[in-house]
Amino acid sequence: MKLDSLHFAGIVAAAKSLTMKSIILPLALIGITSSALFSAAGEEAKTAPFTMTTDTPSDVKAAPEDAIKTASGLASKVLKKGTGTTKPDAADTVTVHYSGWTTDGKLFDSSVKRGQPTSFPLANVIKGWTEGLQLMTEGEIRRFWIPAALAYGENPGGGRPGGLLVFDVELISIKAAPKAPADVKEAPADAEKTASGLASKVLVKGKGETHPAATDNVSVHYSGWTTDGKLFDSSVSRGQPATFPLDQVIKGWTEGVQLMVEGEKRRFWIPAALAYGENPGGGRPGGVLVFDVELLKIVK
């Protein structure tokens, strides 16, 4: 699923069938608060840990000389070291606090100001965030100077800020994306195959006895990959099941989910003819698609 809109219109995308649109997250301003602590005996001063604020940074106009720069043009500086050791992958979902400014010091978005962190799949945000947050560990606070080419461009319109953008980001937690199955490249020899070309394999037996009809609504958890192992959509990553009429999705789902009972988990290898075709365009994945599906409930 892809995200697209910025005040929780910020960085995300809407769904058609099983693909998601992009939504753009609310991006907010964060500042710096540091103070010196002195011992009563006048010992060496110590700097307090950096905390997130909405105060405009003093270096908002341009990245300082000591900023870390990547080949893409992204610049960043660690404001507070993280406590974790793992860095997120592009397919993972992250929870962050952040603030964002234009180079004239204007705060245009801030989860800090709203008082609530935000979560999103890292692959579905602006390029500068996708690249930058993969440099971080949990607990880290980092300032980013994101060039227009990695953000919304120079004159994006639609209320989005243009040009170089500056963000302070605190990486609170990482939720790892579902990993591609070992047999993602093709269905194994023991998979069940139907006359249409659909292949599937039961991963966990269900506890129900009733199979859904094509006209039923179903509630499911699922993850989908292309045969090269790329995760393109997952209700598991979003942390929320999907509910939909079974006759209004791709043919492979309409046929396949009717084979299942409640509580069952099944892996499907869906040929292009039962999915979106070989070269569908519009951001939809082409070719054979692989899905792990858990049928939670049949809604008559």
What would you say this structure looks like, in words?
The protein has 4 helices and 18 strands. It has 2 domains: 11-175, Chitinase A, domain 3; 192-299, Chitinase A, domain 3 (Roll), CATH 3.10.50.40. By secondary structure, the protein is mostly beta strands. The strands form 4 sheets. Strands 5, 6, 7, 8, 9, 10 and 11 form a 7-stranded antiparallel β-sheet that branches. Strands 12, 13, 14, 15, 16, 17 and 18 form a 7-stranded antiparallel β-sheet that branches. A two-stranded antiparallel ribbon has the order 1-2.
What can be said about this structure in brief?
The protein is mainly β and 300 residues long. The protein is built from four helices and 18 strands. It has two domains: 11-175, Chitinase A, domain 3 (Roll), CATH 3.10.50; 192-299, Chitinase A, domain 3.
Write the element-wise H/E pattern from the N-terminal end onward.
Answer: EEEEEEEEHEHEEEEEEHEHEE
The percent range for helix content is under 10%
Q: How many domains would you count in the coordinates?
A: 2
Helix-strand makeup class: mainly beta
DSSP helical segment count: 4
Architecture of the largest domain in CATH?
A: Roll
Please report which band the strand proportion falls in: under 5%, 5-15%, 15-25%, 25-35%, 35-45% or over 45%: 25-35%
| Ends distance | 27 Å
Can you summarize the main beta sheet? Answer: 7 strands, antiparallel
What is the residue-mean pLDDT, rounded to a whole number? 87
